[in-house]
Amino acid sequence: MAFIINSQNGSENEINGGPGALAMRPFAFVGRTIIDWVNRMGAAAIFLFMALLQIFRRKQLYKTVQQIYYIGARSITIIMLVSLFTGMVLGLQAYHALLKFGASGAVGSLVSLSLIMELGPVLTAIMITARAGSAITAEIGIQRISEQIDALHTMRINPIRYLISPKMTAAIISFPLLTAVFDLVGIIGGYVSAVVLLGLNGGVYVHSIQTYVVMSDITNGFIKSIVFALIVATVCCYQGYFAHMRKDSHGAQAVGLATTSAVVLSCVLILVSDYVVTSLLV
Amino acid sequence: MDTPLIEFKNVTKRFGNKTVLERVNLQIYEGQITTIIGLSGSGKSVMLKHIIGLIQPDEGAIYFRGKPLAQMKKAEIAASFAQISYMFQGNALLDSLTVYENIALPLQETSNLKKAEIDRRVMARIEQTELTEAIHKYPAELSGGMQKRAALARALITDPQIVLFDEPTTGQDPVRKNAILSMIAQYQKKFNFTAILVSHEIPDVYFISNRILALYDRRIVFQGTPAELENFDHPFMDEVISSLEALQKELTGLYSKRQFGMLNHLQLKRREVGETYCLVVFSLKELNDIIIKVGHDAAQAALRNMGLYIDKHFSAIGGFSTRRNTNEIITMLPYSNLAEAESMMENFVADFHKKIIPAIQESTCNLASGELVELTIMAGIAEGQSTDDIDSVIELAKSQQKEIGRLHCATGGVNL
Hints:
The structure holds 2 protein chains of 2 kinds.
Chain A: H1 2-17, H2 19-53, H3 61-72, H4 76-99, H5 107-145, H6 148-154, H7 159-197, H8 202-212, H9 215-241, H10 251-281
Helix pairs in contact in A: 1-2, 2-7, 2-9, 3-7, 4-5, 4-7, 5-7, 5-8, 5-9, 5-10, 7-9, 9-10
Chain B: E1 6-15, E2 18-28, E3 33-37, H1 44-51, E4 59-64, E5 67-68, H2 74-81, E6 84-87, H3 99-110, H4 115-128, H5 144-156, E7 162-166, H6 174-191, E8 194-198, H7 204-208, E9 211-216, E10 219-224, H8 226-230, H9 235-252, H10 257-270, E11 276-285, H11 287-293, H12 296-315, E12 320-325, E13 328-333, H13 338-368, E14 373-385, H14 390-399, E15 402-410, E16 413-415
Parallel strand pairs in B: 3-8, 3-9, 6-7, 7-8
Antiparallel strand pairs in B: 1-2, 1-4, 4-5, 9-10, 11-13, 11-14, 12-13, 14-15, 15-16
């Protein structure tokens, strides 16, 4: 028996302190990190699935409308402001760039296609993440650490149905609508800079848009915005909902870090998924 | 004995390396008020969260009506938990909802009741918990006491069969603490639910509890009636009960029954055979009438004021007092015979009319706000000897009780 114990200790020493073990450490770290990531992504996918399952349960309409107001309606001003200047700067740059090739007539199509296919969905998603996504994470995180979510459990109210699903639905409805607003105001911004300020013919600007923008461009833009809506809502709700399980902090600090993580992760995933979705749609 | 409603068998719970509960065994019976007492951080709340399923045990089993939860089907577990309501230590009110919305939430989300019926039930609870003025306020706008009452109203709105109260009196002033405990006892009698409390309010919880569970050093070291706990010989009594009793003495001026018994025992040991002592039993009649008409706060304020003045008056002449039950206070006069005690009582009654009645009037009648309320204060004296059984002396004093004061509140005024 003693021999066995000694031999076990010996092999433990080899694993913990031997030169081979030292060399293995980076691989072990990478492995652990990947497993942790896969675990979290799996958990987030289950979280999203459970939230989507609850969308069509009864008594959800009022809460969903309320969330559309918070996520959607209250974001309109900032979306319009950002899109106006994005469109204006696009119009400005496109006008000067295309003028060199004698193709200034294509400013309208360049501005509108850039906005409809890429900038509209991406910038809208990033702006909503910054404005509403962070608020969602902080709100749910505080509800978690102050036991409000536990209280819902004890009242036999499914917290995912009550808190998460309305936010998911609101995001799915609001993102495409806000993207549409972004696109429209951006195109107007492009018109202001190219036509009003730089003297391009207004008819040429509008005609270029009518000629080159097709319905599939608009549809693809909306598909992207729905994908971004799911990503942002899942990441922000998930980070807040599990703020109490963070290993790096507790309490209010955990909520703060969860909010930061939610915004950073959402922005990164928006850009990554933008490439993936675009490559699938093109 | 009947099958316990809830039973823990060798339940162990660890958080990381820290063991919070270790092989805990306990039984909770239907229709009773069971109070769990123990030091802060000893795992009382963790125990409650096991009962409602918020936390699962690492080892051991929890039985619900004799059936292990682990072997129940999902629907069966859901049905069992549906009978339970939980009042959190930190209230856990949803901060984005008003008081009304918080209380109505369980009915709105889990029942098919019509809006009018929900409104009726919520308003009834709001009135019972004296929250009418706070109905449209958000939790952040309420005082700690009001938040507690809102949480209590929400816990009771579904008429649950089992209610778990996690330190329901934390952060309350002494009067409000007793008022909440009294409210729990009243509701428990009215609705006949099983109440499980975590509380430090000793001895007040003794008056309302049928059973006490003592959690000490990760285990349940005592299960029994409050009377049995008085005779429990364990380090728990010195470390936990004594410290809580000392705090209570500071707050109310009255000794616990256990302290009273010990003091009396010491006095008896010093006395020679044939030496007498006197005992006065004070009672507040129609206290229930005040609870019904004016509320728990007013009743507890009256009782507390009376306790404070009795203690102040008689402790100056060597007496010591305890609360025997919700409306009775006993004062021991260890060095007096009957004639001396009667003379002391005459002085007390004069003082009582001059100082105590106005104090009680201020706290009680002001809360009455137009209700017609009468409160009769009775007192009886009996003489005993060291060889006599104290209970028989108390009974004798009670039989001698006569009215020493009457409080009559009408439309905010008072008539003596």
